[in-house]
Amino acid sequence: MKCRPRQFQILLFCSIACGAQGFAGLSKVNIAKKNLLQVPEESLLTSRREPAGVETIFGKVKDMRTCGARQLVGQNLTGFLRTGNKRRRQRDLGHTTEVRELHHREGIPIAGFQQELKDVASHFSLPPTFQFKGGNSERRALASMKILLEKDYRDLSNKTVIIPATGERVSVVSQFPDVYGDLRLLRFLRKNKESDPVSAGLAFRKYLNWRRENHVDEIRAAVESKSFAAIPDSLQIFAEMIPCDFDITEGQGAVIKLFVGKWQTAKLATLIRREEVLLSDFLVYWMFLFEALHQQLYKQSIKHNQMVFVDAVGDLRGFSLQQLTPAFTSNVMRPWIKQLQCHYPETARRIDVVHPPKVVSLLWRLVTPLLSPGTVAKIRIH
Q: Between β-strands 244-249 and 253-258, what pairing exists: parallel, antiparallel or unpaired?
């Protein structure tokens, strides 16, 4: 088919634009790979798929050299990285099978890693009778995740905080098992629907950085003996504008009652815009609540040998669509939900919406993009 000069100019312009866009996207990917947190050898050997958000990280050996993976692994993984994409996407392949195939093809010794995996799995801080999902497969994934985070825990071994109630200085790792123990790791692992220890480990590493940057361990120290009563008086203004109630039931987890119809969202957004209150203080308020909540969930989970969750009840009685102002949804609700989803995963078992008004369908369409697919599946509207 012949192409007229005008058509040729249009096609040429589209080709250049697409090429520039592709080059820009590739540059962003390469920058992300350069900044990727270093991943130990064991995590590469045991992963069944690429980490979420960096799916192209294993695409080219040249890019792996850029982020230092060749130096980290210390082996020639050219053949594995080029031909292993299809195999890694096969979910039915177990960790042990994949490591054996890698050993057979590349000649990488795996006996030491297998022994380390076995040793880690035999020293979980969870009770021996704790109920794992998927049996040994989840145990192996959790052990792999702990090996991936070994350096992070070594860095945490010397971190201490002072318990305000007693004045005692304690180690955060040993004193706060609900924060750094296997149960919290397991919540991150189950948040990843593929149960991929690499993706879950990287998410947990971001969680550790978030705790350090926001001094969350100091908040956890404050709730050690006071639980929910540790919330400072200066933050009680948020309890008045966003009323909720926490009901801890022995053996049944907890119930969070959210009185959405009484939320003063416009007032909260206005105060934050005028800097009369700070968004950071609002987020700290919820840090206090969820640190105290997970302290209770941990105790019940260990006692009953299974992961205990929260049931949230959203009471929409009196709710008005005017509560969802753009200032609230964009400037307050978005960072609020992001904090809870990223740093307190697998907390809610289900979310029941009661007394919904007729506009609830519109509300659902507005809120759904802010939620993860797993969270959307948990919500039931009555």
A: antiparallel
Maximum average pLDDT range among 14-18, 206-210, 304-308: 206-210
Structural domain span for residue 260: 235-381
Of the pLDDT bands very low, low, confident and very high (cuts 50, 70, 90), residue 121 is: low
- Reference 139, options 116, 112, 120, 111; nearest CA is 120
Which of 168, 171, 164, 166 lies closest to 231 in space, CA to CA? Answer: 164
Whether 13 is covered by a domain: the verdict is: no
Residue 29, burial from CB neighbour count under 10 angstroms (0-12, 13-18, 19+): middle
Residue 227 lies in a domain: no
Give the angle subtended at the CA of 54 by the CAs of 141 and 378, to the nearest 5°.
60
Range with top average pLDDT, 7-16, 84-93, 228-237: 228-237
pLDDT higher for 270 or 367? 270
Task: Name the token pair of 94.
Answer: 């177990």
